[in-house]
Amino acid sequence: MATNARADGRDSQGRPNRAARPRPRRPTLRDVARLAGVDPSVVSRELSGQESRVRPETRARVLAAVAQLGYQPNQVARGLSLGRMLTLGVLIPSLTSPAYAAMIAGAERAACAADYVLLFAGTGDDDETMCRQLGRLAHRVDGIVMASARRDGRALQRLQQLGVPFILLNRRGGEADPCVIGDDEEGTRLAVQHLAALGHRRIACICAPSVIDTAVRRRAAFLEAMAALGLAVEPAWLVVASPGDSQGGEAAVRALLGLPEAQRPTALFCAAGLTTSLQTLAALQRLGQRIPADVSVVGFDDSPLLDYLSPPLTTVRMPHAAMGARAVELLLAHLQGQQIPRETCLEERPKLVLRNSTGPASSDVCSPAPS
Amino acid sequence: MATNARADGRDSQGRPNRAARPRPRRPTLRDVARLAGVDPSVVSRELSGQESRVRPETRARVLAAVAQLGYQPNQVARGLSLGRMLTLGVLIPSLTSPAYAAMIAGAERAACAADYVLLFAGTGDDDETMCRQLGRLAHRVDGIVMASARRDGRALQRLQQLGVPFILLNRRGGEADPCVIGDDEEGTRLAVQHLAALGHRRIACICAPSVIDTAVRRRAAFLEAMAALGLAVEPAWLVVASPGDSQGGEAAVRALLGLPEAQRPTALFCAAGLTTSLQTLAALQRLGQRIPADVSVVGFDDSPLLDYLSPPLTTVRMPHAAMGARAVELLLAHLQGQQIPRETCLEERPKLVLRNSTGPASSDVCSPAPS
DNA sequence: CTGAAAGCGCTTACAG
DNA sequence: CTGAAAGCGCTTACAG
Question: What phi-psi label fits residue B368: left (phi over 0), alpha (psi between -120 and 50 degrees) or beta?
Fold first, then answer.
C-alpha cells in the first residue's frame, strides 16, 4: 500500500477528516420562510409546484431565499407528512447475476425519472432471507418490487400479508398478484426455429427445475415450438439442470451423449441460464464434441463476455433492463391509483444473438432438413 | 405469451388486484399504547431497548399489545425524530460490472447487519450524473459511499460541499477524504512475480488512463515490482487502454506485437480490468499468437466465467465484497463519532487465480530466467 | 417507573 | 393570496 493510514482520523497536517467536521445544519423550510418574511406554509405551497397559489412578488422573495440558503426539502419529513415515503423497495436474488443486475439498472433508471429512490435488499434467492428482507423494507417504502423466478417458499405469501403494494418481477404470481415477465416463450421459439432452420431435428432442451417459473414457461414453449415444426421430442431430450449445481451442465451432457446414436440430439437448447450454458459448453468439449460441427448449442441469457468464448456462444437475450424499468413504472402507476394489468409481458422482443456455437446439422442425420 | 393481461387490473374473477385493495392502516405507537393502556412514550422507551426503565408488569402488557397488533415502528418517523435516516446512500458506476456488483453486495451485507438500509444510485461513472445523484440522495441519508475509481470531475467536490459524511470506495481522495481501497499494489506484485517465476523477463503492462486511480497505483506497482526483480522495462511496454474503448485491447496488442523481435514482450499483465483483458486475449489469438506458448497473459479482476475461456484466463482477484462491506462499516463507525483512518487499504490480500493463460517463457528468450 | 409536552421538518385543510 | 393550527409517527428531556 502506498500511503499510511492514520488511525487517529486526522491527515498529515493534523486536521480532522473532512467528513468528521461538525455537520452544518441543513436549512429548513422555516429558515427559508424567516428569510423571506413569510409563513412556512407559503414556502411549502410555492415549492410543491401548485401554480398561481402565490403572488409573483412573494414568490420572488421565496425563491431568492431558497437560492440563498441552498434549501432542499427534507424528503423524509415530506414523506412522513404525505404518508408516502417516495421510496420503493427492490428485492433481488443476486446483485452479481448479470440478468438481475440489468433488471435493477433498469429499475433504477425508471425510479430516478419519477423522483423516487430505490432501496435494495439482496436475498440470495433464499426464502427465509426474502421474508426477513421484506420485513425490513416494508415499513420504509411505498411499494416493493420482488424480483425472483422462484415459485416455492413463503415470500409471496408474506408479501401479500404485509399490505404493501407490490409487483413481481420475472415470475408469475397467483390470480391477484401483478407481475412483469419477459417473453420467454418467444425467446424459446427463436432458439428452436434457428436450430430447426439449420436442419436440426433432434433438439434437446436443458431446463431449470419447475420451481423456477421461467423454466416452466420455457419448457412448455419448447414443446410447442417443436410440435409446430413437426419435430418429435424424445422424453430423454428434456433434461433438468439446477442453476445452482456446479455439475448440472456436465450431468446433462453425459445423459444426452449416453443416448443411442440414432436418438442422440444434434443440437442443445440450454434454457437454464448463463452458468449452466457455460458448463454445458465446457462439458461437451471435454467429452470430445466439436461445436458446432458435432453439436450446436444455444444458450439463454446474454453477456458481452460470451463473445470471447470459443466458440462464442449464441444466446437468447431478454430485455432485462426494460423489464426492471417496467416493473417500477407499473408499481408507480398503481400507487397513483391507476389500474394496472395483473400480468405484463414485455413487448420488447427477446433477440437471438448469433455467434458461432450453432451450425448446420451434420450430414449423418437420418432425415433431411425440412426446406 | 401464455396468459392474457387484463388491462382493467382485475383478475379473471373480477376482483381487484390484491395490491390495489385498500391498504390496511399500519398500527402505530399510539395504537399499541392504547391497547396496553399506557402512554405512547412508555411503549417507545420499552421498544428502544433501554433496559429496566419499565416495570416488568407493564412491559408484559406492552409486548403483548405489540405482538397482538403486529406492530412495527415506522422507521421514517423514527428517523425524523432522531435526526437520522438510518439509511446510507451508495453511488455506483455500474450495477452490471462484476467488480462493483461485488462491492455492492458486500456493502449491502454490512448495512443489513447494522440495521441500516441502502439507497443505490447508478452513475455510469459520468461526472454530471454523479453530481445529480449526489443531490438526490444527500437529503435522505446519513452518509454516502461513493464508489468509483475516477479522479477527474467535480463529484468529489460536490460531495464535500454537501456536508454529508462520506467515504470513497475504490479510489483515494484528497488529504481529508476517507477512503477504502484494495491492495492493488500487492495484486500487481503477485502477477509480476508469477510471470517472472515462469522465466519471463520482458513483461508488458496494459493499464487504464491515469484518471483512473487504480491504474495509477497498478502502473507504479508494476514498475516497482519489475525493478525489485531486476527486470528492465522498455517504455513501449507500458501501454494505455481505456476500459471504455472496445478497441483498446486490440490496439495495445498491435503496438506490442509491432515491436522488434528482441524487444517484444513474452508476457502481458493486463491491468485495465476484465473487458480489456478479454479484448487483449482475443486480439492476441486473432493475430496468431498461441497462449501461453507464445505469450502469457495475466488479467485483473476475476469472474467465474473466465473458467470457460480458452485458454482460461489467469487473473488477480480483488476482495471486492470485503471492500464494500468495509466502506459501510467505517462510515457507520464514523457516524457514531468514532475516528476512522483517512485511508483504509484492505488487509484481505488479493489472490492470483491460476488458470491456463500463463506458461514458461518460450526458449527463444535471449537471457535465461533468474532462478 | 410513567405521563404530558414539545419537537423532528414538512403538508394541508381551514380561516382570514 | 397568506397565516395559524393540527398532524404525520416517533423520541426525549422534564415533571410527577
Answer: beta
Question: How does pLDDT run across A291-302, given as a tens digit for each residue?
Answer: 999 999 999 999
DSSP secondary-structure letter at B338? -
What are the helix (H) ranges across chain B?
29-36, 40-47, 56-69, 75-82, 98-113, 127-138, 155-162, 184-197, 213-228, 248-257, 274-286, 320-335
A60-118 residue pLDDT tens: 888 888 888 888 888 888 888 888 888 999 999 988 888 999 999 999 999 988 888 99
Q: DSSP H helical segments within A170-212, as ranges?
A: 184-197
A309 in Cβ contact with B308 (< 8 Å): yes
- The three cell numbers of residue A265 are 440430439
Q: Which amino acid is at B144?
A: I
Q: What is the pLDDT of residues B111-136, one digit of tens each?
A: 988 888 999 998 988 999 999 899 88
Burial class for A356, CB neighbours closer than 10 Å (0-12, 13-18, 19+): middle
Amino acid at position A21, single letter = R
Three-state DSSP state, B167: strand
Taking the Cβ of residue A32 and every Cβ of chain B, the question of whether any pair is shorter than 8 Å is answered with: no
Dmax (CA) for chain A in angstroms is 90
Q: Describe the crossing of helices A56-69 and A29-36 by its angle, rounded to 10 degrees.
A: 130
Tracing cell 522488434 back to the chain, one arrives at: B260
Q: At A267, phi and psi to the nearest 5?
A: -145, 150
End-to-end CA distance of chain A: 65
Q: CA dihedral in degrees (A39, A40, A42, A47; nearest 10)?
A: 160
C-alpha cell of residue B282:
482475443
Its pTM stands at 0.85
Q: Which residue has the cell 528492465?
A: B232
> How far is residue A92's CA from residue B207's CA, in Å, rounded to a whole number?
34
* d(C-alpha A217, C-alpha B306), whole Å: 30
- A72-to-A21, A43, A69 alpha-carbon distances in Å: 21, 12, 9
Read out DSSP for B176-216?
T--EEE--HHHHHHHHHHHHHHTT---EEEEE--TTBHHHH
Q: In Å, how far is A367's CA from the nearest CA of chain B?
A: 32
Give the position of cell 400480468. A343
Question: Which residues are bridge partners to A87 per DSSP?
Answer: A117
Residues 6+ apart with CB under 8 A from A371: none
Q: What is the spatial distance between Cα A38 and Cα A63, in angstroms, rounded to a whole number?
A: 12
Judge contact between B105 and A95, C-beta under 8 A: yes
Residue B307 to residue A282, Cβ atoms within 8 A = yes
What are the structural domains of chain B? 27-47+55-65 (no CATH), 82-182+321-345 (3.40.50.2300), 184-317 (3.40.50.2300)
**Chain A contacts in chain B segment 160-219 (CB below 8 A):** 160, 163-167, 172, 175-178, 181, 183, 185-186, 217
A122 interface with B at CB cutoff 8 Å: yes
